[in-house]
């Protein structure tokens, strides 16, 4: 279940990104477009998190992770570490539109 839980945490990471922009960097940005983008990121993140949480409760660990553990054998720890680093990079890449929206809204 551990690796599937990391997927759930990843999906919720976009909420952390939005909160970071809202409270720590651009609290005074009142642009309507910024609020719409925030809402869309939050809805997407919540929907994905809810889906993954429901699947985790229903079926346990994702069968793909079980298959990867068997395939990677001894190296599964390192390979999963690399996989989750790629997810962290993906969070950064998928947050670029949000950052650009805040940048435009603050000028």
Model description:
Helix content is 86%, strand content 0%. It is built from four helices and no strands. α1 packs antiparallel against α2. The radius of gyration is 17 Å and the shape is elongated. The model has no long low-confidence stretch (mean pLDDT 83).
Keywords for this structure?
elongated; mainly alpha; 107 residues
Largest sheet: none
* Total count of strands: 0
Shape: elongated
What structural class do you assign from the helix and strand content? mainly alpha
Low-confidence stretches: none
Q: Roughly what percent helix?
A: over 70%
Gap between N and C termini: 45 Å
Number of helices: 4
Task: Characterize this entry briefly.
This protein is an all-alpha fold and 107 residues long. It has helices spanning 2-25, 32-59, 63-72, 76-105. 7% of the residues are buried.
Secondary-structure map with pairings?
Elements (H helix, E strand, L loop, with lengths): L1 H24 L6 H28 L3 H10 L3 H30 L2
């Amino acid at each position: 279940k551990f690796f599937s839980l990391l997927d759930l945490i990843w999906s919720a990471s976009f909420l952390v990104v939005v909160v970071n922009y809202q409270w720590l960097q651009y609290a005074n940005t009142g642009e309507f477009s910024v609020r719409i983008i925030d809402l869309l990121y939050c809805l997407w993140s919540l929907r994905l998190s809810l889906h993954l949480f429901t699947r985790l409760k229903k079926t346990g660990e994702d069968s793909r992770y079980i298959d990867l553990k068997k395939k990677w054998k001894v190296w599964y720890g390192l390979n999963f570490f690399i996989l989750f680093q790629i997810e962290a990079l993906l969070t950064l890449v998928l947050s670029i539109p949000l950052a650009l929206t805040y940048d435009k809204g603050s000028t």
